[in-house]
Amino acid sequence: MKRIVWTNQAQADVRALAKPAAMRVLHPLHRFAQSGAGDLKALQGDAEELRLRIGDYRLFFILTSGDVIEIRRVRHRSEAYR
Fold this sequence. Notes:
By secondary structure, this protein is α+β, with helices and mostly antiparallel strands. The protein is built from two helices and five strands; from the N terminus they run βααββββ. The protein has one domain: RelE-like (YaeB-like fold).
């Protein structure tokens, strides 16, 4: 299982969500950390940043030092790419 590290901005993004929405984001994130399964895509222009699609939310992160997932942002899809 990969270790999950949150940036301050990502923590604030999750705290701003309603509790049911936050749970809908966190459960698939933990599933991804355990198995690597999910709708994953590398972002154009930034070779290392990845996007995990979770319903209407997009989770932006990088994989660092093998087994660490550094979560950078959690955004609704309407705001994710602005």
